[in-house]
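Q: Got a minute? One more chain.
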Amino acid sequence: MKTIDIIGAGIAGLTMAIALEQKGFKTRVFEQTESIKPLGAGIILANNAMQVYKALGIQKTIEEKGNYISSLNITNTNLKALSKINLASFEHKFGVKNIAIHRGILQQILMNQLPSYSLKLNHKLEKITKTSNGHTLDFKTGKTIQSSTLIAADGLNSIVRQQLFSQTNIRNAKQICWRGTTDYSLPIKYQHELNEAWGKSDRFGFVQIAKNKVYWYALKSYKRNKKELDLNNIKNYFSEYSTIIQDIISSTNKEQIHTADISDLNPNNHWYKENVCLIGDAAHAITPNMGQGACQAIEDAYTLSECLTKYQKNIAFKEFQNLRLKKVLQLVKKSWIIGKIAHLSNPFLISLRNKIIKLTPASINKKQFNQIFKVSHL
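A: Always. Here it is, folded:
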């Protein structure tokens, strides 16, 4: 039985391992942390990601633990809709719903699908050395492992990419993102919607992930240094937003709020080398402006597993990149642009932006989402 090594036990790495195990491969997933501690945040599994989980046989489990979302709305600060995307036609076409779920619950569902031998915690990769038939992996614990096939799912700051691939540039969007979960009862009209309110150099999104449980995210631009922004002032930053948004912030324990910079990888088209392949954020980190970062990583995992089943690994990696590159790089570019448009600060441009969004025909939005939701090899 062929063994494939995976660096990183995030959503991408775990999904990769499940897909490979189901196809008859043996996997080893190396995770640097001693225990997987999920962020106090949710995740939205769009239609394309749920198609993959349907193929892997875990769609129903995820649906039972999460909350379905049938409308994606962009609004002004008072939650008046500028754009509403009804997802019913996509649910009918692809046979799955968009699901919002707590990230920790999703991770546990994924880990439960793997055999006990697969997941290796407390394995922080420090050095990779080329050998005649693969690579030697040196871990912080002092352990050394020989790897004949290596998949890097270790995120934006991938150690595998840094050591084995030509230099890639991380782009900083000069935006801070706060993510949190809270016990909160949304009005019925919002319980199966994702709403994202756009303001002046900031925005706020929220979605129900379980009964009386809300996941939210808030982004704000800074000019020179992220120290300009302080979590303790977050309610003030969004004081002009809807009272529902202010209540959501007030109800959240600050210990349940995670703070991060918004960055991506400057688009590149070098995802594999010899017996090593990058997936997810390690290959093509996307800003979270379209909710597709994790979803594209999930697509990567399934498509790569299909390619490894059909071809020898050197051909499989090339075919994988050919299948995925165009779609992913388009999303990277589009998401970056949307992030800039959403954070306009000039009142005239904000007014113009909102009018354009309102006037955009539903048929255009539907066509764009149809392209996003279509999954290769499914």
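A: The chain is about 35% helix and 30% strand.
Q: Perfect, thanks.
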